[in-house]
């Protein structure tokens, strides 16, 4: 009779031990156990989150900034504490430990209370500089509530991920050596999470954005004026359908100064400014839209004007009136401006999704128009210029790298608020003269490229202009220009002594991770502050830039001052 068999115990792989989750760490997502070191570091990071950045922050933005920053601090502190224990490093014993903890915690709480007390005052310093109404201490309930809510949500998400990882490690640990289980499990989960973030969530985000902004682009608002002038796209004589121009295209062709306004400003002799435009739905392809614009330029007599501008739009198809109107006043309407839409998404979304689209559209439109323009007699054809605001300046830079520009150069370009992805702008800034600040560089004494701001800086450099004139118009307070992922771990030159712009708070400092997050949060609000700061460029600064780029004959600084005063009195239409 054989003895009853018993199940063999699970095999234990050599060099390993069965997986058991750490008993010292909270295992439930909603556990009220917290890391003491993590909470203390979180208090320090909360204090850092209240320091000023480039733009004034409202209660909602401050709450988001603080909530995320607090959890960055908590994660770093809790991670450091866990690593300390894992490595088996002995702690400070007895009374000395209690004293050190009291000092560290006390300083963290003091920093949080002190910066909390000063936060409204610091924000009001920036708001006063920008001419904004001061903030009230009543913002604090919103800041605290949003900070706590966001911190809790992030903590729950982090603990859920930790639980997921531990569950997978435990399942694999019963089948594989422990270290192999950790490596394999981590690799698989990280790959899945990355795919989820970059695939499903990103695609879902853009799908929602498309559903929101596509109908808006087709809307014909009551304040849109369909032009009757044959010099405009969308008019009865135009080859471009009014309905297909897109929202911003309709505002562009229906706006701008009238002949009467130009005559009043310049003493008579004005021409009707030419404005041509192709919307995203005006043709099925980029080349089709470029061909349509060229046909419109020919139809309107644009090549008989003194000045022709190929303008690259922002993400929505927007062309800023502060960038276009001053040029038309400056040349008394003897101008033609052409634009082509490549997207209907806001620039901050297009910056993520449409960089290739703006580059392709800019190059195709330029090549199409430039090829025809270059066949005309040099003595009688118009001067050819480029213009781009924000993401549009990325398109201008892509044109400047074209071989066609080298063979048949343009006369100049104005690029306003160039975003941080602009490679040429970054290279020129890095190679600036050592005695010029990062927020307003001087490059090779200003012969070909000059930088300016709200306060005219175009006279710097000491060199006479060359045949082609390029101007970058930028504010030191514009986060779209000065944001960079490198802010996470590298202090920017524009915050160093002697490099800081006049519209940047003297109290703004750099801290790893925190400053990048703060400036990132400045991006969406860069166009929602008073004119002349952030990403809003005034008519006067654009006028001064166009004077430098186009160099109209007989023009004087007195005329610039007079026209600038007139332009600032005109209402700005935010479309």
Automatic annotation (TrEMBL):
- Protein name per UniProt: Membrane protein
**Could you tell me which species this protein originates from?**
Terrabacter aerolatus
**Alpha/beta-hydrolase N-terminal domain mapped to chain residues:** 52-257
Upper classification of the source organism reads: Bacteria, Bacillati, Actinomycetota, Actinomycetes, Micrococcales
The answer to whether the entry has keyword Signal is no
InterPro entries found in the cross-reference section: Alpha/beta-hydrolase_catalytic, Alpha/beta-hydrolase_fam, Alpha/beta-hydrolase_N_dom
The source's superkingdom equals: Bacteria
Q: Where does the sequence pass through the membrane? A: 29-51, 63-87, 99-118, 138-158, 179-206
Tagged with keyword Cytoplasm: no
């Amino acid at each position: 009779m054989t003895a009853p068999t018993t199940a063999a115990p699970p095999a234990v792989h050599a060099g390993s031990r069965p997986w058991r989750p750490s008993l010292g760490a909270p295992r439930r997502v909603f556990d009220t156990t917290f890391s003491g070191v993590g909470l203390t570091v979180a208090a320090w990071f909360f204090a850092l989150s209240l320091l000023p950045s480039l733009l004034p922050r409202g209660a909602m933005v401050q709450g988001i900034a603080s909530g995320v920053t607090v959890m960055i601090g908590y994660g770093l502190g809790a991670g450091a504490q866990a690593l300390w224990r894992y490595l088996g490093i002995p702690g400070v014993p007895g009374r000395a430990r209690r004293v050190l903890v009291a000092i560290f915690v006390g300083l963290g709480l003091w920093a949080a209370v002190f910066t909390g007390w000063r936060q409204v005052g610091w924000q009001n310093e920036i708001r006063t500089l920008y001419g904004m109404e001061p903030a009230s201490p009543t913002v604090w309930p919103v800041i605290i509530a949003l900070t706590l809510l966001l911190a809790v949500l992030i903590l729950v998400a982090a603990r859920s991920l930790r639980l997921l990882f531990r569950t997978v490690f435990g399942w694999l640990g019963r089948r594989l050596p422990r270290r192999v289980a950790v490596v394999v499990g981590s690799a698989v989960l990280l790959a899945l999470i990355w795919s989820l973030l970059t695939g499903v969530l990103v695609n879902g985000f853009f799908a929602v954005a498309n559903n929101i902004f596509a109908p808006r682009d087709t809307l014909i608002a009551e304040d849109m004026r369909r032009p009757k002038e044959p010099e405009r796209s969308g008019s009865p004589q135009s080859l471009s359908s009014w309905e297909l121009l897109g929202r911003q295209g309709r505002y562009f062709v229906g706006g701008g100064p009238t002949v009467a306004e130009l005559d009043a400003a310049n003493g008579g002799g004005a021409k009707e400014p030419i404005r041509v435009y192709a919307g995203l739905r005006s043709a099925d392809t980029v080349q089709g839209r470029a061909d349509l614009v060229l046909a419109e330029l020919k139809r309107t007599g644009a090549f008989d004007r003194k000045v022709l501008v190929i303008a690259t739009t922002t993400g929505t198809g927007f062309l800023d009136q502060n960038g276009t109107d001053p040029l038309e006043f400056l040349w008394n309407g003897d101008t033609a401006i052409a634009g082509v839409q490549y997207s209907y998404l806001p620039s901050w979304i297009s910056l993520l999704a449409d960089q290739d689209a703006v580059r392709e559209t800019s190059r195709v439109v330029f090549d199409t128009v430039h090829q025809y323009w270059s066949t005309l007699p040099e003595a009688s054809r118009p001067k050819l210029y480029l213009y781009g605001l924000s993401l549009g300046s990325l398109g201008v830079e892509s044109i400047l790298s074209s071989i066609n520009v080298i063979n048949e150069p343009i006369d100049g370009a104005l690029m306003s608020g160039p975003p941080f992805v602009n490679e040429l702008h970054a290279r020129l800034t890095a190679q600036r003269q050592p005695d010029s600040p990062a927020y307003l560089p001087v490059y090779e004494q200003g012969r070909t490229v000059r930088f300016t701001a709200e306060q005219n800086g175009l006279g710097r450099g000491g060199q006479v202009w060359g045949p082609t004139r390029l101007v970058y118009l930028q504010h030191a307070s514009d986060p779209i220009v000065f944001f960079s992922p490198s802010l996470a771990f590298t202090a920017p030159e524009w915050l160093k002594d002697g490099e800081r712009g006049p519209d940047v708070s003297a109290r703004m400092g750099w801290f790893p991770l925190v400053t990048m997050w703060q400036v990132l949060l400045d991006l969406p609000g860069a166009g929602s502050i008073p004119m002349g700061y952030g990403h809003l460029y005034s008519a006067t600064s654009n006028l001064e830039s166009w004077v430098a780029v186009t160099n109209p004959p007989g023009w004087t600084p007195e005329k610039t001052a007079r026209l600038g005063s007139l332009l600032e009195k005109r209402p700005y239409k935010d479309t």
